[in-house]
Design brief:
heterodimer, A: alpha+beta, Aldehyde Oxidoreductase, domain 4, seven-stranded mixed sheet, 27 strands, 24% strand, B: alpha+beta, Ubiquitin-like (UB roll), DNA polymerase, domain 1, 2 domains, five-stranded mixed sheet, globular, binds FE2/S2 (inorganic) cluster
């Protein structure tokens, strides 16, 4: 019987409860091992030399002095990582990003690396590497980079997606377009049109754990990699390809991960560590400093977005249009494309058009950050929506309710929606006490909506039943915030046993089949689907063993509440057999009992959220402070509600930092000026209020329990909700994120002056 | 290279080690003594992941030299539980899910322990300002603050 993933509307006994997480004790006692907490015998310390220039030709690298320093065991450059990508342009970019090949493309780009017996020798060795650069003109601003006069970052790039192939290369790698209807006609029917331009600055995921790994390449071509990653199977593929290793001989173990948020989905240091280990013939530990994390890993796109929305007097939107320009670092990306897909996804629109431009700049390669690209697009669209509501004299929540997408709506990016949560989150916002709470002086309230697709993908799970009746669950998605607890709950639910009887672990790449990256909010969605399927496969065996024990046909045995039960009058005397009893006898009834599952989790349900926030603006300094914050989001089904709340709160807090403070600041020389937590200020405890959450459950029809991904959507509305609140508090529309004190003050002063 | 000989007390036990003059206490704890509970999030005193208590004072161990521990009392997250008995803060962090990834947790636990030692009955605001030197990127701090409030109540009752 094939696995049926459809929603079945069952009553839950484990799912929806809030037990302690299985990895909790290790984490509160300091015993949990993260990327940098692992060591191997004879291990060397690796360090990376990085370009101080935003754009420069590398004329010559002389490593001879470094190699001669006592204690140095290997020095590598791009020459030690030959190009094995075989025409795969995406992987070539990854390789080039790991170690510059001929040209340094941003401040912080790796150019060489060393492995030495200790950290101070390694640091000293870096100073002895001599590099001759020819400095080239650079560009770091997304709008500047689009100009014809801008320095070209890669002269082999001709914009894709244009009707005619361009004659000249440019920094725009691709144009993409989405939508339907006729926006020109739609605007013709509008009574009011709002047209605005917005900018957002580049931010970093800001995980507290820097990238860290220990690599060991053996003489026989086998290798091990211990690493903090969101996807050890993908890291294995990428590292094997770049190093010319056989994938199955490279075992990658994912350590506990100290935050990722999309930023640990790409290899940077790992191929370098493996290459160092191969050259030195010893294990190498490579840990990035915080400065390196900011300069060379992570960041989001910086964006520049134009939005135009028109509506009739009754509040019906007649047309919506946006042009989105997203920086992707020095390599091609699809970030504007994702922004263009998500921009108007909350609304039911007859006429909609979005155009995205991917723009090269001399900044680090853009990486995913929680619902990547969606927060910036939502900021622009939701700000314009608010203004339009204001001009029409309609309450912003009512205006959104009137235009919200519904089941059956054709989304702005193509597909037709199934059951979705945008309407319900707006209704919940409308009735939330937060909406009616009084505001003080210099305070303003804002709200906004957000959308994220959610991903599924390739997933593999093993469920093994011990002879004592305990159950171990081996999963291949990484636990970024409590998924071992939620997956244990799902297995307990399906098997009908107690949560305490289970232990979930994240298996390494040699112990389990391939799993896609843990991204797109797919961890609990996909692995719970595979867990349910694995549990059902185990139940088949359990029923079979019970049938054998009773000597009756297996079709007469059902599984209920953790027991095999013989169905039918004639079996009246047979006492039910528990999982534990069946397991105890497994040695004589056919051997170990296990359930496996390997599947592609399709049908990840889209997710919507509505956020409300109150802001107080100090008119003298321009400082904005969050006074109250509420998150309302559809979870499909909250497997472990406490961790769902945690995802809502965490995303909101990151959004608050992005909205009010965080930004990469580049000098005229193209160097990053704030590569540390002192000057790149993420929210601290005293910056924030409690963050209220409300979980809605509109079941995803494509998951047995109705689960949707929950991790990412919570970062989509905050930029806009806060911008709307600041605009209301300050009495002037804010169009540039972050709304740091100088920007807010300048806007207030311009308004006063004008 | 000759090292500096240091005798110190860590979590109540006597320790002796050799360290280099430029080596931080965080590096000594993690790399020489295998006490990897304290984490390095920045190395510059900005994140609090490396928090320890040095003679009743909360410090960032990335800003203290290994040699400075000579003759002093060091307390790390590894010393918070007594046998199989978790410290109330550890217990409450678990119950409130005050950790997601958990990398910041050792630092928060130590900082909160120091806070409650000095102010057993803090207001929400005092907790928020007391823990403002510790960065958490996952939780938005809500559940951390609640866990500390709850632990304070338990500890007052004890
Ligand atoms: S590592 Fe010491 S404060 Fe960040
Ligand atoms: S729980 Fe991840 S940084 Fe705090």
């Amino acid at each position: 019987m094939n696995f049926d993933p459809r929603f079945s509307g069952r009553k839950f006994s484990s799912v929806g409860t809030r037990p302690l997480r299985p990895d909790g004790i290790d984490k509160v006692t300091g015993r949990a091992r993260y990327g940098a907490d692992f060591n191997m015998a004879g291990q060397l310390v690796g360090r990376v030399l990085r370009s101080p220039h935003a754009h420069a030709k590398i004329l010559k690298i002389d490593t001879s002095k470094a190699e001669k320093l006592a204690g140095v065991k290997a020095v590598i450059t791009a020459a030690d990582l030959p190009d094995l990508t075989d025409g795969d342009a995406g992987m070539y970019d990854v390789l080039d990003n790991c170690m510059a090949r001929g040209k340094a493309l941003y401040d912080g780009h790796a150019v060489a690396a060393v492995a030495a017996v200790d950290a101070s020798t390694a640091r000293q060795a870096l100073k002895l590497i001599e590099i001759e650069y020819e400095i080239l003109p650079h560009v770091t601003d997304v709008d500047e980079a689009m100009k014809h006069t801008a320095p070209l970052i890669n002269d082999a790039i001709f914009t894709e997606g244009l009707e005619e192939k361009p004659a000249k290369p440019s920094n725009v790698t691709k144009r993409s377009q989405f939508g339907h209807g006729d926006v020109h006609q739609g605007f013709g029917h509008a009574d009011v049109i709002v047209e605005r331009s917005f900018k957002t600055e580049q931010t970093h995921q800001g995980y507290i754990e820097p990238h860290a790994c220990v690599a060991n390449v053996n003489l026989d071509g086998t290798a091990d990699l211990w690493v903090c990653t969101q996807g050890h199977f993908v890291y294995r593929q990428h590292c094997a390809q770049l190093l010319g290793l056989e994938a199955s001989k490279l075992r990658v173990t994912s350590s506990e991960i100290g935050g990722g948020f999309g930023g640990k989905t790409h290899v940077w240091a790992e191929p370098v560590a493996l290459a160092l280990s191969r050259k030195a013939g010893r294990p190498v530990k490579l840990v990035m400093t915080r400065d390196e994390v900011f300069r060379a890993s992570g960041p989001t796109s910086a964006t520049s977005i134009d939005v135009k929305i028109g509506a009739r007097k009754d509040g019906t939107i007649t047309a919506a249009e946006a042009t989105l320009r997203y920086s992707s670092g020095p390599y091609a990306g699809t970030w504007a494309e994702i922004g263009a897909m998500t921009a108007f996804a909350c609304y039911k629109l007859d006429n909609v058009k979005t155009v995205g431009f991917e723009v090269l700049v001399n900044r680090p390669k853009t990486a995913a950050y929680r619902a990547p690209s969606a927060p910036m697009a939502a900021f622009a669209v939701e700000s314009a929506v608010d203004e339009l509501a204001k001009e029409l004299g309609i309450d912003p929540v009512e205006f959104r309710i009137k235009n919200a997408a519904q089941e059956g709506t054709r989304s702005s990016y193509g597909p037709v929606y199934g059951p979705i949560g945008i309407g319900p989150t707006l209704e919940a916002a409308k009735h939330h006490p937060h909406m009616k709470a009084p505001l003080g002086k210099n305070q303003g309230r804002g709200m906004a909506c957000g959308f994220w697709f959610n991903f599924g993908g390739q997933t593999c799970v093993d469920l093994n039943i011990g002879m004592d009746g305990s159950v171990s669950l081996a999963v291949g998605t990484v636990d970024v915030g409590g998924s071992r607890a939620s997956l244990s709950l799902v297995a307990a639910e399906e098997l009908g046993i107690d949560y305490a009887q289970l232990k979930a672990v994240v298996a390494d790449t040699s112990s389990l089949g391939y799993n896609d990256m843990t991204d797109g909010s797919r961890g609990t969605f996909s692995s719970s689907m595979a867990t349910i399927s694995a549990a059902r496969n185990a139940i088949k065996i359990l029923r079979d063993r019970a049938a054998q024990t009773w000597d009756i046909p297996v079709d007469d045995v059902v599984w209920e509440n953790g027991h095999a039960i013989a169905k039918g009058e004639k079996y009246g005397n047979l006492a039910a057999l528990s999982l534990k009893e069946i397991a105890a006898k497994s040695g004589t009834t056919g051997g170990p009992i296990a359930g496996h599952s390997e599947l592609v989790a399709d049908g990840a349900g889209v997710s919507f959220a509505t956020h409300i926030c109150d802001i107080e603006v100090d008119p003298e300094t321009g400082a904005a402070r969050v006074i109250r914050y509420t998150v309302i989001q559809d979870a499909g089904k909250a497997v472990h509600p406490t961790y769902v709340e945690g995802q809502y709160q965490g995303g909101a807090a990151q959004g608050i930092g992005w909205a009010l403070n965080e930004e990469y600041i580049y000098g005229k020389d193209g160097r990053l000026q704030n590569a540390g937590f002192l000057d790149y200020r993420i929210p601290v405890c005293s910056d924030l209020p409690m963050i209220d959450t409300q979980i809605l459950e509109i079941p995803n029809p494509n998951h047995p329990y109705g689960v949707r991904g929950v991790g990412e959507t919570s970062i989509v509305p905050p930029l806009a909700a806060i911008a709307n609140a600041v605009s209301n508090a300050a009495g002037v529309r804010m169009t540039h994120i972050p709304m740091s004190p100088p920007r807010v003050l300048a806007a207030i002063e311009a308004e006063r002056g004008g | 290279m000759a090292g500096i000989a240091v005798s110190t007390t860590i979590n109540g036990d006597a320790f002796e080690y050799l360290c280099q003059p430029d080596e931080t206490l965080l590096d000594v704890l993690r790399d020489r003594l295998g006490l990897t509970g304290a984490k390095e999030g920045c190395g510059t005193g900005d994140c609090g992941a490396c928090s320890i208590i040095l003679d009743d004072r909360l410090v960032c161990s990335c800003l203290v030299l290994g040699a400075e521990a000579e003759g002093r009392q060091v307390e790390t997250v590894e010393g918070m539980a007594h046998g199989d008995q978790l410290h109330p803060l550890q217990q409450k962090f678990l119950e409130h899910a005050a950790l997601q990834c958990g990398i910041c947790t050792p630092g928060f636990l130590i900082a909160a322990k120091d806070l409650l030692a000095k102010n057993p009955d803090p207001t929400e605001e005092e907790i928020r300002f007391g823990l403002a030197g510790n960065l958490c990127r996952c939780t938005g701090y809500d559940k951390i603050v609640r866990a500390v409030q709850d632990a304070a109540n338990v500890m007052k009752g004890a």
